[in-house]
Amino acid sequence: MKFLVMNGPNINLLGIREPELYGKETYQALLDRVRAACGAEGIEVEFFQSNHEGALVDRIQEAYFEKVDGIVINPAAYTHTSVALLDAVKAVKIPAVEVHISQVSEREEFRQISYIRAACVKTIAGQGVEGYCQAVRFLKQFLLQKVKP
Question: Which catalytic residues are annotated (predicted)?
Answer without folding.
Answer: 22, 100
